[in-house]
Fold Probable nicotinate-nucleotide adenylyltransferase.
Amino acid sequence: MGGTFDPIHHGHLVAASEVAAEFGLDEVVFVPTGRPWQKEDTEVSPSEDRYLMTVVATASNPRFTVSRVDIDRPGPTYTIDTLRDLRRERPEAELFFITGADAMAQIMSWKDIDELWSLAHFVGVTRPGHELPELDRQNVSLLEVPAMAISSTACRNRVRAHKPVWYLVPDGVVQYIAKYELYAGDAGSDGAEAVNAGTVDTGSNGTGAVGA
Ligand SMILES: Nc1ncnc2c1ncn2[C@@H]1O[C@H](COP(=O)(O)OP(=O)(O)OP(=O)(O)O)[C@@H](O)[C@H]1O
Ligand SMILES: O=C(O)c1ccc[n+]([C@@H]2O[C@H](COP(=O)([O-])O)[C@@H](O)[C@H]2O)c1
């Protein structure tokens, strides 16, 4: 599963887990992008941070691994190169490439799309707010997965606004964001505020209110 993963969230993890179960996959390789060329007008966090958050998020699942192929390859990231690199590393494997509905809708604009189809089986998963396109091809499958209305954009915006991201992203990712002060940006926060945004602020209003 390729992605910018800025940050990785439970929408990614549920999609990967569902596809692994449905297709009987032995391994799901998460591949953080190096330079996502279709996001060049968006500020993207350093690739090492996105890679490390992906490692933290997937560590507890023995079938989940993380690849550096895209972040170690210079230049813009194209899936054609990702799949060629993964094929070189795993010559015997049957390759599947997992994408959400929004990415699937853009796939015809991807580099070398005609050749891309021959390198893997593509699995498009449902995502709230996005229509899964009908792609009438032999090596494309569509899969309905539990709806997780989460995006990395919303997570970044929540951190900037000092709102919690607990339970939207894995606990270790909450801590990583706070520790390295990611997404503190525009909110004008200093280090202390960034720590409050992630590590210790559990969303309580400090009045002793208890919800059940
Ligand atoms: N909630 C979700 N449910 C299903 N698929 C998802 C979900 N979020 C992301 N994906 C898919 O995961 C892949 C990587 O997504 P990406 O890292 O760009 O996350 P994002 O939440 O879309 O990020 P951003 O908001 O920054 O654009 C894409 O194929 C995307 O469609
Ligand atoms: O190959 C391409 O031209 C291409 C264009 C846009 C996106 N992708 C891939 O699609 C995956 C999801 O991308 P994104 O930008 O939604 O995180 C990721 O692996 C990208 O490298 C690939």
Notes: The first helix runs from residue 10 to 23. The two ends are 36 Å apart (CA to CA).
